[in-house]
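Hello Y.,

Per our agreement to keep a running log of every chain we model this quarter, I'm adding this entry. I've kept the format consistent with earlier entries: sequence first, then predicted structure.
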Amino acid sequence: MAQLTYNQAGYQLVTDLPESMRPWRDRPTRWENVSPSTGAYRLNAAGEYLYYPDGGSTGFDHPVGQAQFGLGCIASYRTEPDPARRAVFLTRARAQAERLIDRHVEERDAWWFPYGFPFTHAVHTGVDYDAPWYSGMAQGEAISLFVQLAELDEVCDADRARYLSAAAGALASLTIADDASPWVVNVNSAGYLWIQEYPGSTPGAGDYTYNGMIFAMFGLWDYYQVTGSQEAAALYDGCATTIARYFPLLRNQRWISYYCQTHRIPTASYHQHHINLFRQLHWQTGSMDFAEHTDRLVDDYPAAGVSGTVQFGAGTHTLYRFDTASDGSWASSRADAVLESKSVTFSRATQAPAPMRRRIQGRGIHYRISAGAYSGWWVGEAWPNSFLLGEHLTTQYRPARTVTFPGGGTSVATYKVAADGTVTDTKTVSFASPSNAPTDRRAIVNGRPCFQITAGGLTGYWVPAVSVTVDSAGPAGA
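Predicted structure for the entry above:
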């Protein structure tokens, strides 16, 4: 078997993360979903999570589904106060791990978890498999499932050793090149390591899917933080180096990010996944690269679930009707075309409710008004003329980042803001030379991207991002 050699930038793994920042804690299985009995994904009599195409009666192994369901059950188990429910969550998680262990295939000195059904991607040409087939995403997520079960105090020593052995078998699959089958990892012509969610039928071919690779990386993080494996750390470094290098190809500036490198199709349902995944890469590495990537993705196509009250300043505003889905969301066939526009003038400041804030295709961020004379119309975000009150879309930085105030006596206004958007205090500062301050978070505050200062005389104040610069340089520890 060929030895993998690949580019590494020196990304280090941060293992002392708070519980809430660790992999999969943000994706718990809800209690009402712990025993699915209908639909395409449901439990068999043994409590194993199987895929039933078209809702039929024959279930097939779906390793990503099984691993994610099990990890969601572990996340809920960790926080569930009721002992009876905790027992169910643990039982469900262990059932998925046992299914993966029982059905694994040993080839090329590694463990592989086969998909039991043929699959053809409805959109991505070339993703066409006969059963069995394998996915790097599944291999990495299985590692997380085994390791996280092994971490639980309620698991006996014998089972803990068995789970860690299974994780080691799966890890081996991520060290094997694409010179024979099965394979899920390759190094591209520029020397960058890829874990392929959808490996191709020939060496080096694949979808080069971003989210699948990052989810697999979480398995490497889990394995390293329990075992200290330098092999897992090196693989993680290589993958992080790849993701940072190819972020410009993932990003679709001021619009929806691309799902994969091969097809470059903007996929709205995965953009928020990308935001969450890059946020976790920042936490797991301490690198400001991934913090900066997160910020760019938030601004490009922010989550549309934000709602609140829009503050209109006195004066003239342009309102629009866009061609959208009935609920105001983006529809590809309509492309947010302008149906109508008009100008309105307010003699004094006024407010209106807005159930949606989103980027309009080819335009800026807009709010959809839901009551009054302008219900159904949209207004652009433009502080201080029109903005959504309060703090929204917060990203927590760990470690803190550094903002730099300009020198030369340039005045910069900073603000303390209440939950309802009321400005409770303002400080205007100026410095003869550039001055640094730490920030632990970024958010959209009263319609502007802002950083919150966490030390010195400006502790607790927000500074608009346009007024300062922020660090964004290289892997932490490199």
